[in-house]
Amino acid sequence: MAVIKVVLGDITQERVDAIVTAANESLLGGGGVDGAIHRAAGPRLAQAGGAIAPCDPGDAKATPAFNLTPPVKHVIHTVGPVWEGGSYGEADLLASCYRRCLEVADDLGVHSIAFPAIATGIYGFPTPDAARIARVTLAATPTKVELIRLVAFDEETYEALSGGSTSS
Ligand code: APR
User: Fold this and answer.
1) Residue 121 Cα, ligand 1 centroid: separation in angstroms?
2) Which atom, in ligand 1's list, is nearest to the CA of 157?
3) Residues annotated as catalytic (active site), given as ranges
């Protein structure tokens, strides 16, 4: 069973085997955490992403981490759901992101992984609910990964990932 830790910080500074980016289907990069990771990894990340795109919402695909410094070896690109009010399967798609990232991590022999709060920025998923889905899904998914770090970029997200109440 993996140990799950919640931290506040910049995911590009994480010292883990793999970091997860909240991507879009093109895997060519974007704003938010995806932009930060692509800037840190360099232009080869978008080239590698584009070569294996598209990535469906809820799915996850891995590339090398390029200019990100060790121990990071892999970037796992996952595409969260765009929030449309909650009645269009958004929760299931978000849970699938976390599950698929762990499956891809297991295929790569990853021991430690860092996740951002997928879909809670530009895609608009309410943070308290997204955080609960992350915690519940990661705790319930069998994996060989030993350490999971949930990286919050702000206090609200940190509190939510740490077990705050949900909005519903
Ligand atoms: N480290 C950790 N978390 C970060 C960082 C960072 N350096 N930068 C932003 N975040 C956080 C945001 O504060 C938010 O909590 O990542 C979370 C996810 O927000 P977004 O990056 O906007 O991702 P998402 O909501 O899934 O939207 C994805 O945005 O960047 C584009 O290409 C991406 O089209 C896709 C969409």
Assistant:
1) 5
2) 15
3) 34
**Averaged pLDDT, 121-134:** 98
Strand 60-64 and strand 74-79: the pairing is antiparallel
* Whole-angstrom distance, CA of residue 166 vs CA of residue 45: 35
For the segment 45-83, what is each residue's pLDDT rounded down to a tens digit? 999 999 999 999 999 999 999 999 989 999 999 999 999
Tokens encoding 24: 């879009």
Q: CA-to-CA distance for 41 and 20, rounded, in angstroms?
A: 12
> Which residues does 75 contact at the CB level (< 8 Å), separation at least 6?
18, 19, 20, 21, 37, 41, 45, 62, 63, 64, 65, 68
pLDDT in tens, 32-53: 999 999 999 999 999 999 999 9
Pairwise CA distance, residues 127 & 83, whole Å: 11
Give the CATH number of domain 3-161.
3.40.220.10
Q: Which atom of ligand 1 is nearest to the CA of 123?
A: 25
Question: Whose alpha carbon is nearest atom 24 of ligand 1?
Answer: 119
- 63 SS3 class: strand
